[in-house]
Amino acid sequence: MGSNTEEWRDNSFPDRYGDVVYVSTRAVNRAAREALMQYPCERLIIHYLQPHCPYIDLQPQDTGFPVQAPGVRTVLDGTKLPRGTTVREKVVDIITALTRSSPLRNLDAVNESHLWLLRERMGLPPETPMDSVRRSMGVEGLRRAYTENLRLVLDRFSVLLSSLQGRVVVTADHGELLGEGGRFSHGHGRREKLLLEVPWFVVKRSSSAIRSRGKPQKSGIPMKLL
């Protein structure tokens, strides 16, 4: 586990995977069923993108992703412009790099919202899809979009659950900051409690009921628990 997916990947599977690819919930379910058929006696880690952005219930222009023509499949790369294209962006890039460098990234006086507000006041576009939603819908709208994304992925997971046997753990590789203390998002090396402590639910498939509902688990849980 870690404060973002790449950190979780590197901590859990050192030197095994060099990239993270985000796909739809249906594709995850399909791959999970194929893995269950191929490795019926193995434990699996089934990793969904949601409730992480993009927020599925919103239109692409509201989520910070470019609107795509029907039938065109392209990488969702957010709203970022090329670095250093204007003087204002160069200034903001320097401030951003300094702010996100260790040990400044975990200081309460310096956080992501300050960088987002700086970009907004300088007339620059949102740096991330999450900031795009914050600008257009406010913090409460961002939280609603995140909650709806969570409902959507849980609905899709419930479809897969009927194919699973034995002990199933539902958890997350990291948390998300949605305006708590003026902080947003998640990033490598950050150590806020809400990023490192995540829900932990155990489902016993023999009865299809939640067997236990433990306390949030901290980063560093041994993978053998899964």
Task: Give me some keywords for this one.
226 residues; mainly alpha; 2 domains; three-stranded antiparallel beta sheet; two-stranded antiparallel ribbon; 5 strands; 8% strand; elongated
Describe it.
The chain has 226 residues and is mainly alpha-helical. The chain folds into 2 domains: 157 residues, no CATH class; 46 residues, no CATH class. It has 7 helices and 5 strands. Strands 1-4-5 form a 3-stranded antiparallel beta sheet, with no helix packed on it. Strand 4 and strand 5 form a beta hairpin. Helix 2 runs parallel beside helix 6. The two termini are 12 Å apart.
Topology:
Elements lengths: L4 H8 L12 H14 L21 H4 L23 H14 L11 H10 L7 H33 L5 E4 L6 E2 L5 E2 L7 H4 L4 E4 L4 E5 L13
Antiparallel strand pairs: 1-4, 2-3, 4-5
Question: Number of folding domains?
Answer: 2
Q: What integer is the average pLDDT? A: 75
Give the proportion of residues in helices. Answer: 25-40%
**Count of helices?**
7
**Biggest beta sheet attributes:** 3 strands, antiparallel
| Share of β-strand residues | 5-15%
Strand order of the largest sheet: 1-4-5
Distance between the termini: 12 Å
Element pattern in H and E: HHHHHHEEEHEE
General shape = elongated
Spans where pLDDT lies below 50 across 5 or more residues: 72-81, 207-214, 216-226
Report the C-alpha radius of gyration, rounded. 19 Å
Structural class: mainly alpha
Number of strands: 5
